[in-house]
Give the backbone structure.
Amino acid sequence: MNLQSLDPRVNRLNIPASTMTPMAPKSVLDQFATYEAFIQKKEGAPFTFAGAVHAPNPDVAFLFAKEQYSRRSSCTGIWIVQTAHVKLTPYASDEASIYDSFDIDKPEGVTRPLEPYEVFHQQKRGKAHTHVGRVGATSYEEAYELAKNKFSHLTPVVNVWIIKSKNILQSAEEDKDMWVTTAEKKYREAGAYRVMERIKRFKKEQQRRRSKI
Amino acid sequence: MNAPALKDLLFKLADDQLVLGHRNSEWTGLGPILEEDIAFSSMAQDKIGHSLAFYTLLHEELGEQDPDTLAFTRPATEFHNSQLVELPNGEYDFSLIRHFLYDNAEIIRFESLSQSSYTPVAKVATKLKGEIKYHVLHANTWLTNLGSSTEEAILRLQSSLNELLPYALGMFEQSKYEAELIADGIYSGEEAIKTEWLKRIKNVLAKTDLQLPDPDTTAPVLGGRYGTHTPHLQALIDEMSEVFKCDPGAEW
């Protein structure tokens, strides 16, 4: 009996199953935490949600996000935040504003100093959340109230994310050159391989044959 | 313009990138986690892209054959890469240490070359430096994270470091044109690169529980720059050029 793997390359090696000591069973829930990545496409553009990565810490999440989300398009900066640090509102239906239908009670008697919070809007379900600005508040609830005053004119907004600025790992100014790269990278994109001509020719040939029958 | 010296320099740079790019691409689909698999594969692709940039200079500026012919049809004895980059992959710790030792040297080479008096190479180095900066950040972040984590991680990395240091020192084997390249302001020379490299890798290793074996008493593995290689290189070239050799004249 040979070692069976989901990877055909391993199966082709015909390794006897008996020579391998099976791995100790893993405990459940050994996954890394998830981090959300925001990409700035060009200088001055708002940071926009790109996707998530699993990572053991924010530094490694940055390494991963850089390759997952910025290697195929222009980029001038990345923000990273652990998913658990993203507070979000419920969703409004498209064309509506969540600010009109969702309220939170502001906690009373809060005396902590003001902290910066970053506010992100989603304009439509399925679209990426985009950074709209920053408010100074003493809690997420207060930050939401302030965001409502400051940004509710930006409609539609179906969902709001609020993140404490201190929880966002921002790419450094001196690392900007990491995204300066050769434009000659077409070999990485499907579009660079001119196969459409051949596919069209093949389809025509198929049709010709079918019409003969 | 000193063509033989420039060719020697460009072949050494291009061959290192091509061979390590190919080796690292062997991890594609087998990386430890999905995100790392993608990052490592993407960097491997960058390296092959860098080799293309240098083979193109050799072709367009110095009259060598076209990049595909240079990459796929030379025998191992005509490759100028260091033996470090041709060694077969083992476990991931081995590849991470090789990545750390190699890219920390590569960034210094590129910093030096971006100031080169030979403008075509200075332009290429300036353009590609940013990518290597990320490769170094990737290597150093993993080293500092794993190098002070669990006993198993530290032991594995340490044993790969002990195994690879002699090969890494072999990267700095001097060419017979060393003095001319330095005198002409084309390249700062291997000795200067090595001194700076040792400083930088020691800085990173100081943040971990790893110990750098004494480089002064470690004998470097030399010969790669002059075409002496382990049998692993020819095997790699054969595999890499298998498709090309089916039909060398094919248009892609």
Notes: DSSP finds eleven helices and no strands in chain B. The radius of gyration of chain B is 18 Å. Chain B has one domain: 3-246.
